[in-house]
Specification:
Helix content is 4%, strand content 53%.
Length: 257
C-alpha cells in the first residue's frame, strides 16, 4: 500500500488493526476476505478546477467482509507506478460510514482541492482512484488504482452575434473566445485549434440546432458568419476534451426584421 493510502488519521481498534497488518504493498489483501464492490467519485462526473476557487467533492466506496467492515477510504492521485513517482494526492478527510448489512458498509470520503496545488497543466486528465478497506478483525485490502477519474481544466466561452437588428436574409457575424484555466500561471489562456459548434434556437422554441463547426485560432478566438433567417438566439458550444471541461454560452438574441 502506498504511504498516501495510510495518510488519514486513524484511532482506536482500527489503528491497532492497521499496525498489526503485514507491511502492505500495492494491490494487496491481508486476511483474504475483504472485497470492494463499488467506488464512485464525484457522482461519476469529471472534477473541474479553475484558477482560484477551492473545489470540494466526495467519493463513496462500498466494501464487504464476513467479519464486518470497520472503515473504507478512497484516495485520488496522479503519478507513476512507483510510490516515489507520485505527483500529488488530493487531500481527503475522515470517511463517514453507513452499514448496509452486518458484512457491508458504504463510506463517503470528502475531498478538498485547491487549484494552487495543481502545479502542472500536464496533470489534467486521468487520475488514479485507489481504495483501502479494513475489516473488524485484522484483515483488509488495498488497491492503488481500482478505477480512474478525470480532473479537468475549467473552460470559459463567449459569444457575440452582430449586427443587431438585422434585415432578413442578411449576413451576421458571430465572434467569441474559448479559454481554459492555466494551472501554472493561474489565469486563463486561449485554447487553440479546438472545434466549437455554432448553434441557433429560433425564438419561441426550446431546442438549439448546430449550424456549423468553427475552429479556434491561435489565441482561442472564434469568428464565422451565418444567414439571419428569423429571430432567435445564437450560441457557441464546446463539447470538451479529456483535459478540459465542456462549456456553452448563453444565447445571444438577434432581432431579424
Amino acid at each position: 500500500m502506498r504511504s498516501i493510502a495510510i495518510g488519514a488519521a486513524l484511532s482506536g481498534a482500527l489503528a491497532l488493526a492497521v499496525a498489526s497488518a503485514p507491511t502492505a504493498q500495492a494491490d494487496e489483501s491481508w486476511g483474504g476476505d475483504t472485497t470492494i464492490t463499488s467506488v464512485t467519485v464525484n457522482g461519476g462526473k469529471p472534477i473541474v478546477v479553475g484558477t482560484s476557487n477551492t473545489v470540494t467533492f466526495s467519493a463513496s466506496v462500498t466494501a464487504t467482509d464476513p467479519d464486518g467492515i470497520e472503515t473504507a477510504r478512497v484516495f485520488v492521485w496522479h503519478g507513476g507506478p512507483k510510490e516515489e513517482d507520485t505527483d500529488m494526492t488530493v487531500p481527503f478527510g475522515r470517511p463517514t460510514c453507513t452499514a448496509v448489512d452486518a458484512a457491508t458498509k458504504t463510506c463517503v470520503v470528502p475531498f478538498t482541492l485547491d487549484p494552487r496545488d495543481l502545479q502542472k497543466n500536464a496533470w489534467a486528465g486521468q487520475w488514479k482512484v485507489g481504495v483501502d478497506a479494513f475489516d473488524k478483525g485484522n484483515g483488509g485490502i488495498s488497491l492503488d488504482a481500482y478505477k480512474y477519474t478525470n480532473i479537468q481544466r475549467y473552460s470559459k466561452l463567449s459569444v457575440n452575434a452582430s449586427p443587431e437588428p438585422v434585415a432578413k436574409g442578411k449576413t451576421i457575424t458571430v465572434t467569441g473566445k474559448l479559454t481554459r484555466a492555466n494551472w501554472e500561471t493561474h489565469d486563463y489562456r486561449g485554447y487553440t485549434n479546438q472545434p466549437v459548434k455554432l448553434q441557433f434556437r429560433k425564438a419561441g422554441t426550446d431546442t438549439y440546432t448546430t449550424v456549423k463547426t468553427v475552429y479556434t485560432n491561435s489565441t482561442g478566438n472564434l469568428k464565422t458568419t451565418a444567414t439571419a433567417a428569423s429571430d432567435g438566439y445564437w450560441r457557441y458550444y464546446f463539447s470538451g476534451t479529456s483535459t478540459t471541461a465542456t462549456v456553452k454560452t448563453a444565447g445571444d438574441y438577434v432581432d431579424v426584421r
